[in-house]
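task queued by scheduler; priority normal; single chain, no ligands, no partner chains; default sampling; output format set to structure tokens
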Amino acid sequence: MLRGRLVTRAGVLLALVAAAVAPASATSIKRVSLDRLVADNELVVAGRVLDIYSHWNSDGTFILSDVRVVVDDALKGDAGQREFTFTAMGGTVGDKSVVIVGGPDIEVGKPYLFFLSRQELPGLGNALSVRDLSMGIFDITDSPRGRWAVNQSVRHGLIPDVNGNVEPPGGFRGMPLTTLSTQIRRQVAR
């Protein structure tokens, strides 16, 4: 859920409906390895969310959110500048909300590691976006052990990959951000 705006009763109702039709074990997402995330996305950046602007798409049929990020570290690709914007599905406009179950959970002011690619979104072509739902975003937190990165898919059940692995990239508890960054850079260099 994108948290740039207050969720209204309509948004809560949509979330409850989505939860009611989802399996009791939560939303399941197919596991993607860190190697696949790096290979399949054109831009990998660590950065902090400056703001989120939710709006209707050009057809007026779906809510999208523009997420503005200040770049701390570009691990793959070129963000083009110190700040850039990508678009995520979902958000709140007025009293209407669209919630993407299993989608990235993004809040203004927080740091994340984003895996981004261009894709077709409802009413918006060739948009830079998190295409891998919660698999494509890591929460970054400060701890006594340093900066730590945890993949957001730990909040959801993962469908095993072809090798039967259900562990999220970075493990169930995450890993030091420096270790994850080194692994990503090695993959990019191959």
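post-processing summary
- The two ends are 34 Å apart (CA to CA).
- The first helix runs from residue 9 to 21.
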